[in-house]
Design brief:
This protein is an alpha/beta fold and 201 residues long. The chain has a single domain, classed as Rossmann fold (3-Layer(aba) Sandwich), CATH 3.40.50.
Length: 201
């Protein structure tokens, strides 16, 4: 007499007739976790310097961009894509919450540094992200020594505060991105006006 491998009605077969039917995973189990979808590009300062050294040893040009990136908009994306075209590997410095508040005033940033760094790391043009706490990226630039420091069009090459640091080790300062027609400050003002208009109606 044939022996059952488990209870009837459970999708099993009689012994001797091959393995039981494979279990179908639930929809939830088929969704990859965020960690498996996106490589971890957010690095400590030390890990960033090590990663950049490896890239340089492989003959790749390092580009560096920096900013607060509070409420990411199309101007940010175009700036970072243009910065990436200046090199083979793009590192992005994201201002810490403290440095953003110090530079832009109370109430900023809107998004905390961890979220801003994660959003930037999700862009395909970005290879590495580091959060820095200084008001200026000059110290980070002097350690990283990228081949190119890319700044947005709200600057001219001669007015970039860190240009002297970059020139001292033989790097280049370039202005990239579209005209400064987009700004988080303007976006926030539009949101406030929209909300105020809704309250009046």
């Amino acid at each position: 007499m044939k022996r059952k491998t488990s209870e009837p009605g459970r999708g099993t077969r009689d012994a001797g007739h091959g393995p039981s039917e494979p279990r179908v995973p639930s929809p939830e189990s088929r969704v990859p976790s965020p960690e498996s979808r996106v490589p971890n590009k957010i690095l400590s300062r030390e890990a960033l310097l090590e990663a950049a050294a490896s890239q340089k040893a492989a003959g790749r040009r390092i580009a560096f961009a920096n900013g607060a990136f509070d409420l990411l908009h199309v101007g940010h994306v175009r700036y970072l894509e243009a910065a990436r075209r200046e090199g083979d590997w793009l590192a992005v410095g994201v201002n810490s919450d403290r440095s953003v508040e110090n530079g832009k005033g109370k109430g900023r940033p809107i998004l905390p540094e961890a979220e801003r760094a994660e959003i930037i790391s999700a862009l395909s043009c970005v290879d590495a992200v580091v959060v820095f706490d200084e008001d200026s990226p000059a110290g980070l630039l002097s350690e990283l020594k990228p081949d190119v420091h890319a700044k947005g069009t709200d600057y001219e090459a001669e007015t970039v505060p860190e240009r002297g640091v970059v020139a001292a080790y033989g790097g280049r300062t370039v202005i990239v991105g579209d005209p400064k027609d987009h700004a988080t400050t303007d976006l926030l003002e539009r949101i406030r006006k929209t909300e105020n208009g809704k309250r009046k109606t």
